[in-house]
Design brief:
CATH superfamily: Divalent-metal-dependent TIM barrel enzymes
Strand content: 15-25%
Structural class: alpha/beta
Distance between the termini: 19 Å
Order of helices and strands: EHEHHEHEHEHEHHEEEHEHH
Largest sheet: 8 strands, parallel, barrel
Number of strands: 10
CATH architecture: Alpha-Beta Barrel
Number of helices: 11
Strand order of the largest sheet: 1-2-3-4-5-6-7-10
Shape: globular
CATH class: Alpha Beta
CATH topology: TIM Barrel
Number of domains: 1
Amino acid sequence: MTAAAGHRRLSLNQATIKYATLPEALRVAAEAGYESIGLWREPVQEVGLDKAVQLVADSGLRVSSLCRGGFFTAPDGPERAKALDDNRRALEEARQLGTDTLVLVCGGLPAGDRDLAGARQRVRDAIGLLVDDATAAGVRLALEPLHPMYAADRAVINTLGQALDIAEQFPAAAVGVVVDTFHVWWDPDVIEQIARAGRDRITSYQVCDWITPMPADNLLARGVPGDGHIDFGPITRAVAATGYQGDVECEIFNADVWNRPYAEVAAHVAARYHDLVEPHL
């Protein structure tokens, strides 16, 4: 199936074929008929930013997002300053790669810290410190709420409502939110919060499934759509109802998926997208 046959809005997030180099990932996505790809900073840095920019241009693909910034819940001091500087570099990387979306994983509790409310306030403060940089770069800070099981170590922002509470304090052109089915499908308020976000605040829509039994490493509990428990129809229809016209990324962290041939994974993801997600857009 080619992009003209329906891949136009489907983006292959690079995490789904984690072990592919940047050149391999771009080739696989293009040959599978995708028009866009979600990039991660580490593979970009492996080849160097200038080379990555050229590789993207040569591929003919657009970059739907760059992941990731964030991890700025540390208290004031050298660690926090280092994180903020790294986010400023990430904004510039996103700009040069041609995407207007930098996905933020906000960070968990600092070592020995149990002040969840304080950590969430530091996320808000960090966004405030980065808004001018985002505006200058023309790149939106995309707050991604993560499932509550990651609150301690990865993200103290755990619901779409919490992400919006922060985002709405800043211009929509600079700060938005990510709707990732894996992280929000369980939330009884998710449909209302998607409507609240509206077209102006949704910067990225990501789809993957929730599988059980959960692996020992809960980071790797994502499945290809259709392999788990998520009903993609209601969430997708809610996103579509806002007028969102952006890409739909498939981002999967799963050891079995990572060990399959890259082209096979790309084709499998596309087929499931066409069956389970696209009909509701």
